[in-house]
Amino acid sequence: MRRASLSQFLIERQRSGRINADLRLLIETIARACKAISTRVNKGPLGGGHGNAGTANVQGELQKNLDLMSNEILLEANEWGGNLAALVSEEMEDVKPTPTHYPRGEYLLLFDPLDGSSNIDVNISVGTIFSVLRCPQGPDGQMRVPDEKCFLQPGREQVAAGFAVYGPTTQLVITVGDGAYGFTLDRETYTFVLTQEQIRIAEDTAEFAINASNMRRWEPPVKRYIDECLAGSDGPRGKDFNMRWVASMVADVFRVLSRGGIFLYPRDSKNKEGRLRLMYEANPMAFIVEQAGGAATDGATRILDIQPQKLHQRIAVVLGSKNEVKRVTSYHK
Ligand code: F6P
């Protein structure tokens, strides 16, 4: 069977009118950057990416060399393409409008260049997450110089989102709003090949993912949910649950997309707003998960309906198999 490449997949979507040529080129550019990052990750300690960079990002988190390299690769690939009005990254403090000597496009790009970076030095999967929004027009219908406000749109306004996992294979999952699709990087032809069509997350599951070391700080509804899972067939759920935690959201969400499950990073008494970033992690993942038939809330509200207040906002995340997410959300009510 001949499988479609990412380019063919995107051209078909352009022909059917779902995306325009600019969005197609933008996604292709991001995918190209992901291949370059994958190569860097693959080199491990030989590629200069291991170790701390000796700097901290806007949230005060220490940056790894590979965080900075991945950020540079994405910036360099995207700023001159003519598809973007501006971009912003988890690793940068401010919005970066497209330099005036390049054509300015209609889209806004947000990305987490290297998610799960605590796993870089220990040879565990890491990844890249991205989200694409339309740049709002000014009151006169003209394109305005993009600032932070332009980015503060609820996740339901995303026109595309995706993530790459750099694991034993490099996988790319994307959505342009007509389902979620998975691609595998063929290292011989250096192309992304469609390997998972119309991904569907099972509505029920017996597998959960959470950092249990935070248990003593959780809010009662989360504690109740996990206690019930741990009680297994002896408890109110009447069945045994399995637990997994990679500590790379990309890998944990990829597993949920592949075989179902629920992923939680709740707010707690230490991370009062939550740990994950709304714009760079929660929104793109929520879009993908919903497109695959799953659900995503912050415990109470659908993530895609949350109005962001600031670029680097943190949020609680509960996503995955629909019936489990519903249950956790009902415990919060
Ligand atoms: O910041 C993102 C991240 O690395 C996620 O990819 C991952 O799910 C989470 O943080 C891991 O958190 P912890 O270190 O608490 O396990």
Give structural notes.
The chain has 8 helices and 17 strands. It is of the alpha+beta class and 333 residues long. The protein has 2 domains: 6-196, Fructose-1,6-Bisphosphatase, subunit A, domain 1 (Fructose-1,6-Bisphosphatase, Chain A, domain 1); 207-332, D-Maltodextrin-Binding Protein, domain 2. The strands form 4 sheets. It has an 8-stranded mixed sheet with strand order 4-3-5-6-7-8-9-10, with helices on both faces. Helix 1 (6-15) runs antiparallel to helix 2, helix 2 (21-43) runs antiparallel to helix 3 and helix 5 packs across helix 8 (322-332). The relative contact order is 0.13. It binds 6-O-phosphono-beta-D-fructofuranose. Residues 115-116, 118, 211, 247-249, 265, 276 line the site of 6-O-phosphono-beta-D-fructofuranose (F6P).
Question: Which labels suit this protein?
Answer:
D-Maltodextrin-Binding Protein, domain 2, 333 residues, alpha+beta, 8 helices, single chain, binds 6-O-phosphono-beta-D-fructofuranose, 8-stranded mixed beta sheet, Fructose-1,6-Bisphosphatase, Chain A, domain 1
Strand content: 15-25%
Question: CATH homologous superfamily of the largest domain, by name?
Answer: Fructose-1,6-Bisphosphatase, subunit A, domain 1
Q: Quickly give the structural class.
A: alpha+beta
Radius of gyration: 19 Å
Bound ligand species: 6-O-phosphono-beta-D-fructofuranose
Oligomeric assembly: single chain
Percentage of residues assigned to helices: 25-40%
Main sheet record: 8 strands, mixed
Question: Could you give the count of β-strands?
Answer: 17
